[in-house]
Amino acid sequence: MTGFVGGALDAATLDACAAELHHEDWYESATRSTGRFGVSVLHHGARDPKGCTVWEDGSRVGAIYGAVTNLDELALDADGLFDRLFEDPHALLPELDGSFLVVGVDGDAERVVLASDKLGTRQCFYVAGEPFAFGTEVGALTTLLDDPQVDERAISDLLMIGHVWGDKTLVQGVKFLPSGSVLDYRADTGPEIESYWHHTFEQSPDDSYLDDLTAAYQEVIADMADTIDGDIGLWLSGGLDSRSMAGELSRYHDLTTYTYDSNPANGSNLELAAKVSEVLGLENRRVPVESNALVDSLDKSVQLTSGMVGLSTFVNLANVFNIQDMPDVLIEGCGQGGMMGDGIGRAAVEGSKSPEAALYRAKHRIDVDDARRLLRTEFDPMTTYREEVRKSDQPDLYSTAMDCYYRNYFPRCDFASNPIAESQAGTRVPFSDTEFLEAVTRMPLSHRVGSIPLTNGKIPAGTAYPKVELVRRLDSRLADIPYERTKVPPARPMWQHAAGFVVGTSVDRIRERLIGDVHTYGGRSTIGDWYRTNRALRERIDDLLNSACERPYFDADEIRRLQREELTGEAEHMSAISGIITGELWVRKYIDREDRATEQGAAGTTEAEDTPQPAD
Length: 616
What we know:
Elements: E1 3-7, H1 11-20, E2 28-34, E3 37-43, E4 52-57, E5 60-68, H2 78-87, H3 89-92, E6 98-106, E7 111-116, E8 125-127, E9 133-135, H4 138-142, H5 152-160, E10 174-176, E11 181-186, E12 190-195, H6 209-226, E13 232-235, H7 241-249, E14 255-260, H8 268-280, E15 283-287, H9 291-304, H10 311-314, E16 329-331, H11 336-342, H12 346-350, H13 355-362, H14 368-374, H15 383-391, H16 397-414, H17 418-422, H18 434-440, H19 465-474, H20 476-479, H21 494-515, H22 526-533, H23 535-548, H24 556-568, H25 574-592, H26 596-600
Parallel strand pairs: 13-14, 13-16, 14-15
Antiparallel strand pairs: 1-3, 1-9, 2-3, 4-5, 5-6, 6-7, 7-11, 8-9, 8-10, 11-12
Helix pairs in contact: 5-25, 6-18, 7-19, 13-15, 13-16, 22-23, 23-24, 23-25
């Protein structure tokens, strides 16, 4: 993917690490060296000229991967930004808005300053030991380790949570740079990492915060638009987040909208996205969702996400490889829903006695007991939540849970799959902005998504009030188009959204039982359907599951059971399977360092001996 790699590396080692980054023929590159340090950058060049800045001034070099949106407001150019970065990063960085990573290297001082934005919208990793190195793909750094070993704690996260939390990666010795953090490396002291940004969650006593939130949302979209030259594409569904973004962004740019021809399979997203596009005067294009395309894109998607996001999380984004006539910049509304109240619901907080219990209740892929049965490690899956809670200095259960959510879910899940899109087009995330974050984090718990009475919090009440209210305030035309999830327009009262969600979900589940529609809400997954019907995908997944059974940190019998029940349709286990196979694929490539599919030949396409064969 586009990004960078660098550190205290000689020219040959730097080139070898850069060669490990995902590469397309049309990428442009720049390498800068000073003293014993070097940085190698891959970028989109003329396709997205404002998406990357490479800087050099004598013995100092640097790069901004992404875009800072308020440089004009701060009266800064690249020279001024890097001067201040070296002088006092903790004074500069809180002032910067935008989606970026910034790295500065002072060769004379033998110093590196590396920083992520306030939300960690672009992933960055570093080698915790020697040689000091950093980069945007874990695989590029793993080559520097003499004897890389799997981090079983990360495997546990990937399985139960669906992605990795904290500063862990799948390999010991390579760490994730947290959001809102600066790494200051000096030759005599090594890397020191400190947070420069801390979220606060002082709840608004009423809905007055929505005035600031709406104004800030409009401003961040306008600021994002100013950083883009060229053609713009936007993923558009029948939901609320993407239509809000489409409405605001279309005020500043012509854009093309793209809609999956699935999710759900009944075509409602296609119909609603077409209506939104028509109202806004935009072209809407259908993007095919095909199982064969997933077979082709699986390996590079796992590489781009460094193996730390489960397949079920990034499968939709992998459809970027199916777009014809790719725009210069491709944007999605990912992260907006979580910030607008859908991420952690009221039931998770009100029904929990501790922040870690609230986090587990709100954000886990599989049940903790199921994870414990699958894992043979001394690391209990719940430990991750407890560790992240201990890092927080928030005053109460709600604020602590939200702090952990912002520090982990957004950078390590929602935005962790962005490199897939970034591999094909420039990307932007507008939400890493001071005024927006200060407004949205004032949301009261009462405005977060509720639950249907008498369901013990297990069935959400459709959606969160701020999501609906934002559409109402931005464009009444968009508020009159039904919301795919609740089947009623945003202009309607919230109780109708709750009722619409319950009725719609019930109908979808009846449809699933009657006609076998496996794409409905609460039904079986699309990937599970493909696994049962597409031989090439099944063979690929089974090969990965077979080798996962050989790992000391997995229980082979449990994996075989999941595999068998998924294949026969007896039960739905794709949430667990997707974490197993993405981690296994990455480990095989970067830790085992062998192409086992080639090595095993025909054995690599053999399914489990006790697994029945379905008809194709």
